[in-house]
UniProtKB/TrEMBL annotation:
InterPro entries with a match to the protein in the record: SBP_5, SBP_5_dom, TAT_signal
Pfam family, one: SBP_bac_5
Keyword Transferase: no
Family, per entry: Belongs to the bacterial solute-binding protein 5 family.
Keywords: Signal, Transport
Taxon lineage: Archaea, Methanobacteriati, Methanobacteriota, Stenosarchaea group, Halobacteria
One GO molecular-function entry: peptide transmembrane transporter activity
Keyword Aminoacyl-tRNA synthetase set for record: no
Name of the molecule in the record: ABC transporter substrate-binding protein
Residues of the Solute-binding protein family domain: 261-580
Family annotation (CDD domains): PBP2_NikA_DppA_OppA_like (cd00995)
Signal sequence bounds: none
Length: 584
């Protein structure tokens, strides 16, 4: 919900001062050196990059892609460091501190191109989460990112294609591939694992007991991410699209399923011009028994837009759901179960605003303290939320830090009610009355738990290298589906030489996406030239054609042609010293 142009707060004096300090730091770290070079006051500087990635035991594929990139950067004369960061530190440096040169990792992406607006809009470079972590700026692109959300049909498609053409040319990050979601499942307890995408919020809603007469079953899940027991905060950004917290503990007004955004906690909505009127389902309650009302809806959109609730000069938006909330200019309570939203979007985009996870006002309104003004952290974001009071079809029953999490089915949730509502008919009731997540140290240990009968399913993030072990066990099977998790190379355009589009393109030419899909993912991935998944949006001249037509690999098969690769860096305005090192 915005009170200012483009969803941003006006610059305060404190923000201006901080920005000035950052500008001086950047100048002294890069631009000043360039000025000194031009004046003949200093020798040329060698190009040096720090490439960060998670360790092998956390994400082997990102690690291997980064290793290949580092090796090829060295071959073309770039001095490169390759530190490996634990998952929490990796996420902090990329999504909070913006302390990186280049990284290789994953992010959740969508089929609809509106997700690119916060990801690449120039005014988002100082915010948290997936709000332009790259520090990328292009004012003309900003205008098109704004324009596409207010248009529909062919007009919107034309703007989006132009927008994607610009992104392909500038390469603020390099899309590589979306992996296939892979889970190991036991065949003796539940079925229906592949009825929907494995990482979609409704994935576990689709399964059913193998024996229909069985009631009161427990679904046992294994995961290697211990954070699932530590952080139950729906405002904390994740690096992939699967999140049990937002799937089962917290609910939005609408969810995307069966090919469209459809009512969830909303019973219905209507659009009249720039106004969207939403009516809640009757009898909604939070897990602590308090009624869920229209006032909670109004509060949620205000809180996501500014987690300090106007208590400070600056605005502190939540790292997640900013895109959806920015579609809404104002929320007015019309009654106990009805709100009216004034929209800043066309009817083609507006329903996506309803996919924000709702928050109980009586719990979250006290979490407004600013914890770190420099990074924009408030207590709402740093709070572990270990009591996790939501409105989802399952409630938190217990947890053991770094070991396990237990959820129980909520009988009066619309999915679980014994009535004739469309939601209950489509999904309910859930096939399990309890869900237990047990944390294990590795992918192999997760599979071992299933082999020993200690679990029913792994989280759908298994490495493709363990598939061969699963298929040799008659009691296990492999469930797979396309994902919306994009492996990519991210650049910090706040720093030299990464602010130069030609340099970023030259780095992109070092990556053989087809080979990565085969050798790193074992074929369990789909290569990408654009971050938008639906090809109907993508201009034909930049679509995948066996390679990336915009930044084709500078080599033959998987062998880098170092001379050809160096020419890309020279074309970007860089040159080589007598020792063969790249300088500027």
């Amino acid at each position: 919900m915005n009170n200012h142009t483009d969803g941003q707060a006006p610059l305060t004096r404190r923000q201006v001062v901080a920005g000035g300090a950052a500008g001086v730091a950047a100048l002294s770290g890069g631009c000043l050196g360039s000025v000194r070079n031009l004046l003949g006051l200093a020798s040329a500087s060698q190009v040096s990059l720090r490439v960060v990635a998670p360790p092998v035991d956390w994400d082997r594929r990102a690690n291997e892609i980064a290793g290949q990139l580092v090796n090829r950067l060295e071959k073309v004369g770039v001095d490169t460091r390759f530190p490996l960061l634990p998952p929490e530190q990796f996420r902090e440096q990329i999504l909070y501190r913006r302390d990186f040169d280049v990284y290789v990792g994953t992010m959740p992406v969508r089929s609809d191109p509106d997700f690119l607006r916060p990801l690449l809009t120039s005014t988002r470079t100082n915010e948290l989460g997936w709000q332009n972590p790259f520090g990328f700026t292009d004012k003309a692109l900003d205008e098109r990112l704004d324009a596409q959300r207010r248009q529909a049909g062919a007009d919107r498609a034309d703007v989006v294609r132009d927008m994607l053409q610009t992104i392909a040319g500038e390469q603020p990050f390099v899309p590589i591939a979306t992996d296939r979601a892979i889970a190991a499942v036991r065949t003796d307890a539940f079925a229906g694992w592949e009825r929907t995408r494995l990482r979609d919020p409704t994935w576990l809603f689709e399964i059913e007991p193998v024996e229909e007469s069985v009631d009161g079953q427990t679904l046992r899940v294994t995961a290697k991410d211990k954070r699932i027991t530590e952080r139950l905060n729906p405002l904390v950004p994740w690096i992939n699209e699967f999140d049990l917290v937002r799937s089962l503990l917290y609910d939005p007004l609408a969810r995307y399923y069966d090919g469209a955004v459809r009512p969830w906690l909303a019973r219905e909505w209507s659009i009249d011009g720039d106004e969207l009127t939403v009516t809640l389902r009757p009898g909604l309650r939070w897990h602590d028994g308090e009624p869920l009302t229209a006032e909670d809806v109004r509060f949620t959109y205000q809180f996501v837009s500014d987690t300090s609730l106007d208590s400070t000069e600056a605005v502190y938006p939540a790292p997640t759901f900013q895109r959806q909330a920015s579609l809404v200019d104002e929320v007015t309570v019309l009654g106990e179960r009805q709100v009216r939203m004034r929209m800043d979007a066309s009817g083609a985009v507006a329903p996506d605003a309803l996919t924000v996870a709702l928050l109980p006002k009586h719990i979250w309104e006290s979490r407004t303290n600013v914890v770190d003004a420099q990074t924009g952290l408030t207590r709402a974001i740093t709070h572990g939320n270990t009591d996790a009071i939501g409105s989802g079809p399952m409630a938190l029953k217990s947890r053991r830090r770094e070991r396990s999490l237990r959820l129980s089915r909520v009988g009066n949730h619309p999915v679980n009610r014994d009535d004739d509502s469309e939601l209950a008919r489509r999904f309910g009731p859930l096939a399990f009355t309890e869900l237990v997540v047990r944390v294990t140290p590795s992918d192999l240990t997760m599979v071992s738990f299933l082999e020993e009968g200690k679990a029913d399913v792994t989280v759908p993030h298994l490495d493709n290298e363990v598939v061969s072990r699963i298929v040799t066990n008659d009691e296990l099977s492999v469930a797979t589906s396309p994902s919306r998790t994009l492996y990519h190379v991210g650049f910090n355009a706040r720093r030299r030489p990464l602010r130069t589009p030609g340099f970023r393109r030259a780095v992109a030419h070092l990556i053989n996406k087809a080979s990565v899909v085969d050798s790193v993912f074992g074929g369990y991935a789909d290569p990408h030239t654009s971050p938008v998944l639906d090809e109907s949006w993508i201009p034909g001249n930049i679509r995948w054609n066996g390679g990336d037509p915009e930044v084709p690999f500078a080599g033959v098969e998987d062998e880098l042609d170092a001379d050809r690769a160096r020419e890309h860096f020279r074309a970007a305005g860089f040159h080589y010293g007598e020792d063969g090192r790249l300088v500027y």
